[in-house]
Amino acid sequence: MPEKEPLYIEEIFDYVSQRPQKFALNFWEDPRYFKLHRHNFVEFMYVVKGEGTEHINSISYNLKPGTFSIVMPYQIHRIDYSEQNPLSIYVVAISFEELLAPSSIFYRIGELLLSYDENVLPYYYFEGKEKELMDRLFKEAWTYFNQEDVWAEIILKAKILEIVAYFDRCRNLASAENSQRPAPSVVQNRTQKDSIPVPSDYWQLVYYVHKNYNQNIDLKVLSKEFHLSPSYISQLFKKLVGSNFHNFLNEVRLQHACSLLLSTDKPVTDIALEVGFDSYSTFARVFHKHKGMSAQEFRKRGGAG
Amino acid sequence: MPEKEPLYIEEIFDYVSQRPQKFALNFWEDPRYFKLHRHNFVEFMYVVKGEGTEHINSISYNLKPGTFSIVMPYQIHRIDYSEQNPLSIYVVAISFEELLAPSSIFYRIGELLLSYDENVLPYYYFEGKEKELMDRLFKEAWTYFNQEDVWAEIILKAKILEIVAYFDRCRNLASAENSQRPAPSVVQNRTQKDSIPVPSDYWQLVYYVHKNYNQNIDLKVLSKEFHLSPSYISQLFKKLVGSNFHNFLNEVRLQHACSLLLSTDKPVTDIALEVGFDSYSTFARVFHKHKGMSAQEFRKRGGAG
C-alpha cells in the first residue's frame, strides 16, 4: 500500500437523477472502480468472467467466475485484476439505512448480514448447479433492472433478496461444515425458523458513527450507549472497518467536510465545526494528514488529490 | 345461492402453532375449501391441474391450468369444481395488515393491489412461456416453504413478491391492451417508475372497518374520515366486498362474537357490547338473522350451524 492512502468514501449515486440512491445494480467491466476505496453502503459482487484478487480489510481471496463477495459499509477494499483475462462483474449496492430501517424491503437481509460472526467468510465460490442458479438469478435481475415500471422494480428487489439470502445461507452452511468444531451458534440459531437473529450490536456501532458523526462522540459515549467496554469497542472497529475508532470517526467527518467544500461556499471554519470537529485547528491537522493538502487547496483544486 | 348464506369468515390459521398467521402457502386438492365463504385476508390462487369455475362477488370465470386469481379481503367467493377433472391449486394467503403495514415485506405489493380499479380483472390466464415461468416460480416457492431455516423464509417471501408483482403486471397490461380506450390511468401511472401509486382510499375503507369494528362507526364517521360522500362510500362497499356497509359491519362484528362465544365463558350480553353492538337486543336480532339460531344455542352446539 502506498504511504498516502488513496482512500475515498463514496455514496450510491445516480447519474440521471443526480441524487444519492438507496439501491443500485451495476454491471462492470471497467477497472477504474477497482482501486482501493471504501464506501458507506453494502456492496455485493458476483463474477461472471475473468480473474482477479479482492482484498477486504486484511482478507484476500481469488476471484473467478461464480465468486460472490460482500463488502460491508466502510470496509477498505480493492481488486487486483488480470490484464489477460479481464473481469466482468455484477455489483449490487444497498445503503446502510436500507438494511437497518424496518420499513425497508431489505431489512430482513440486514438482520442477517449485520450480525457479525468472524468465522463466516465474506465470500463464497458458487459451483455446479448452485452456480447455474446464481448466474440465472443475476441475469434475470439485470433484465428487470432495465425495465422501467413499478412491477419490475418490485421483482428486481425480490430477486436481490433471494440472491443475498441464498448467498448468506451457502456461506454460513459452508462455515459450519468446514470447521472441526460444532456449527457456530449463529448457524444453529438461524437454521431454526423461530429464532430469527436480532441485529447484533456490532454493526450498529458503525451505524451509530455513520449517523452521529457530527455529534460529540467518543469511546465513552459508545460504551454507555452499547453497554460494551471501551477497549472491546476499539477492537471491534479494527475488525469491522479496519481502522481504530478515532481514525474512523475522522474519516467519516472528512468525507462530509470534503463534500461540503466542493458543493458549497461555506467558510472552511464553519465546515470544520459542522462535521463535528471541536476546533478548526484539529480539523486542519487531520485534513492535512489524510489528504496531503489543506482544505482550502482541496477546494481550489476541485477535489483532485 | 341458498336463502341462508353458508357464510364464514376465516383467519389464516396455523394448525401447528395454533395461532393466526400473517402469511401462508398451501397446495390444495381437497374441495372442502371451495364452498362459499369470505375471509379477512388476501388470497391468491394458481391452478396446476383440473377444471372449475370461480365466483367472486358478481364475477365468474373458468379455471384451468395456468389461471391465476386474487380474492381481496372480505370478498365472497366459491369454486365449482369438476368431479371428472379435479382441481390442484396453489393458494397464497397474506393478511390485510401485512399488505398495509410499511414494515411488512409485502407492503410494496399492497400499494399495488389495494388501489382499486374496476377495469382490472381479478384473474389472468397464463399461457406459453409466461405459464412456464409461473409454474416454475410456484414450484420453487413450494420447495422453500418446506424448508425450515430463516434464509428459506426470506427466499419464499421474495418469490411470493415476484409472483404477485408479475401477475399484477400481466393483468394490468392485458386490461390496457384489451380496452378500446387508452390505457387506464393506473397503468399509465404505474408504467412510470417515478410515480408509485399511493394506497387508494378504497380498500382503506374496508381496512378501517376491519380494525375499528368494535367502535361506534357509521357512514357519517367514514365520510368524515375519508372525505367521501356517504352514498359513494355505500356504493364502494357493494363493489369491494359485495355487501352494503351495514351488513358488512354486522358480519365483521358477528365473526368476532362467534369466536368469543366459542373460546371464552363470557356472558353473551358482554360479548354483544364488546364487539360493537349498541345493545344486546340489536345483537340478538342480527345474530339470529345471520346464523338462524340464538347466540346461546350457537355456543351450546360448539359453533355447528
From TrEMBL, chains A, B:
Q: Which UniProt keywords apply?
A: DNA-binding, Transcription, Transcription regulation
Spell out the Gene3D superfamilies in the cross-references.
Answer: Homeodomain-like, Jelly Rolls
Organism encoding this protein: Caldicellulosiruptor obsidiansis (strain ATCC BAA-2073 / JCM 16842 / OB47)
The superkingdom listed in its UniProt entry is: Bacteria
Q: SMART domains, from UniProt?
A: HTH_ARAC
- Cited InterPro entries: AraC-bd (IPR003313), Homeodomain-like_sf (IPR009057), HTH-like (IPR037923), HTH_AraC (IPR018060), RmlC-like_jellyroll (IPR014710), Tscrpt_reg_AraC-type_HTH (IPR020449)
Q: What's the protein name?
A: Transcriptional regulator, AraC family
Specify the taxonomic lineage.
Answer: Bacteria, Bacillati, Bacillota, Bacillota incertae sedis, Caldicellulosiruptorales
Single GO MF descriptor: sequence-specific DNA binding
Q: Which Pfam families match?
A: AraC_binding, HTH_18
Please report the stretch or stretches of sequence annotated as the HTH araC/xylS-type domain.
203-301
